[in-house]
């Protein structure tokens, strides 16, 4: 089935969303957001795949001898990974502060504002 | 909204999105298909500019401006984390105590450290030739330093890791990328245009500005990750509440076996 990889990407995204919405721990929620983001890697790499293709690196491959997978989506995935990792770090820093100031990391208990 | 109602909203929204995603998947070009117009053009452009790793060519030449944005996100996220996790006035620092490490762990970590460091530097330096580059190699270099935390303890890591210097190197990497872009303007073309000679294909000096931009990113990522991990480790190991003497006194801080990273 040629649409299966795309469906897998959509499924991973929905699973991540479910985890985000039902999470009772902010660290878990950040992890779920990372799962959502992982679905975009799967989607990008699936879009760029080519049957029988190899990595688009010509250090040990004569150009034109073999089909290569799409390098544009691979570069986009690299961007995605880097941004995802740093944003995860930033969010976890927020969770550390929330945990220290409020004594809880359960989003349901964080309803009131505190100066 | 009650928890039950929220789950219902989620179910309806999720189902709707699932249907849309399924319909969209059917319209996408088939998996593994042969038609990749952008990919084919990117490969052509990379070969014309003597860069054998096409992904590096896309990141540091064809869409180098996007990579500037990406690098700036990394820089800002590291900066934001440092600001968020700094020591506040109602907190104090405790000296981490030396911890005992099992001899085999110490041995293997100390052997792995120089090897990992070398691999990281290799991956950065060969970014335009073989798979890898500044982003990937930078992370490997940064994690190599943290093997010292596993092998010895936190104080040994702190000795080889002056955070201030790494923060400066982080900024220097970002600045180097910006200034290398300006070289294009000086040469009379566009910002971040490839202005250097392309060199011989498949050698370290090939690709014009690609290896230089790659090295700038390598420096920034390696020092950025070190600074990020330092802020988190500080929180886990050193910083405690000023009035907190019971549950996190110096003698039971997080032992090195339980890595907070």
UniProtKB/TrEMBL annotation, chain A:
UniProt record similarity statement: Belongs to the CPA3 antiporters (TC 2.A.63) subunit C family.
InterPro entries: CPA3_antiporter_subunitC, NUOK/Mnh_C1-like
Keyword Translocase carried by entry: no
Recorded superkingdom: Bacteria
Organism (species): Streptomyces rimosus subsp. rimosus
Protein name per UniProt: Na(+)/H(+) antiporter subunit C
Compartments it resides in: Cell membrane
Gene name for this UniProt entry: mrpC
Membrane-spanning parts: 6-22, 29-49, 72-96
Membrane-related topology note: Multi-pass membrane protein
Gene3D superfamilies named among the record's database cross-references: 1.10.287.3510
Pfam families: Oxidored_q2 (PF00420)
Keyword field contains Repeat: no
Alphabetical UniProt keywords: Cell membrane, Membrane, Transmembrane, Transmembrane helix
Coarse class of the protein's main subcellular location: membrane
Automatic annotation (TrEMBL), chain B:
Pfam families, A to Z: MnhB (PF04039)
Tagged with keyword Transmembrane: yes
UniProt KW keywords: Cell membrane, Membrane, Transmembrane, Transmembrane helix
Highest taxon, organism lineage: Bacteria
Main location: membrane
Localization (cell): Cell membrane
Mode of membrane association: Multi-pass membrane protein
InterPro entries in the cross-refs: CPA3_antiporter_subunitB, MnhB
Transmembrane segments: 72-88, 108-129, 135-154, 175-193, 213-233
Domain Na+/H+ antiporter MnhB subunit-related protein: 106-226
Similarity section: Belongs to the CPA3 antiporters (TC 2.A.63) subunit B family.
Protein known as: Na(+)/H(+) antiporter subunit B
């Amino acid at each position: 089935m040629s649409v299966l990889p795309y469906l897998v990407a959509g499924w991973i995204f929905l699973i991540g969303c479910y985890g985000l919405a039902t999470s009772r721990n902010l660290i878990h929620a950040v992890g779920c957001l990372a799962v959502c983001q992982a679905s975009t890697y799967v989607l990008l790499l699936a879009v760029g795949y080519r049957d029988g293709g190899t990595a688009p690196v010509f250090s040990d491959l004569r150009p034109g001898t073999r089909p290569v997978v799409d390098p544009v989506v691979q570069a986009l995935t690299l961007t995605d990974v880097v941004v995802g990792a740093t944003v995860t770090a930033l969010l976890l820093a927020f969770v550390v502060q929330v945990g220290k100031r409020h004594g809880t990391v359960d989003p349901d208990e964080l309803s009131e504002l505190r100066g | 909204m009650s928890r039950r109602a929220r789950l219902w909203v989620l179910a309806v929204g999720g189902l709707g999105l699932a249907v849309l995603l399924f319909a969209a998947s059917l319209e996408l070009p088939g998996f593994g298909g042969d038609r990749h117009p952008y990919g084919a053009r990117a490969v052509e452009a990379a070969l014309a500019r003597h860069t054998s790793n096409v992904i590096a060519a896309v990141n540091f030449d064809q869409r180098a401006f996007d990579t500037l944005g990406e690098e700036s996100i990394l820089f800002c996220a590291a900066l934001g984390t440092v600001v968020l996790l700094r020591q506040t006035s109602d907190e104090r620092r405790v000296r981490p105590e030396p911890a005992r490490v099992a001899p085999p762990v110490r041995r293997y970590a100390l052997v792995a450290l120089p090897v990992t460091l070398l691999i990281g530097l290799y991956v950065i330096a060969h970014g335009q030739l073989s798979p890898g580059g500044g982003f990937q190699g930078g992370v490997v270099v940064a994690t190599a330093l943290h093997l010292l935390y596993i092998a010895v303890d936190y104080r040994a890591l702190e000795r080889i890791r002056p955070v201030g210097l790494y923060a400066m190197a982080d900024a220097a990497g970002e600045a180097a990328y910006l200034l290398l872009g300006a070289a294009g303007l000086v040469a009379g073309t566009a910002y971040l245009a490839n202005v250097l000679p392309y060199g011989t294909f498949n050698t370290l000096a090939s690709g014009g500005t690609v290896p230089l931009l790659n090295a700038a990113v390598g420096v920034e990522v390696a020092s950025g990750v070190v600074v990020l991990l330092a802020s988190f480790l500080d929180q886990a190991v050193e910083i405690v509440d000023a009035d907190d003497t019971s549950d996190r006194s110096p003698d039971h801080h997080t032992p090195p076996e339980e890595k907070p990273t």
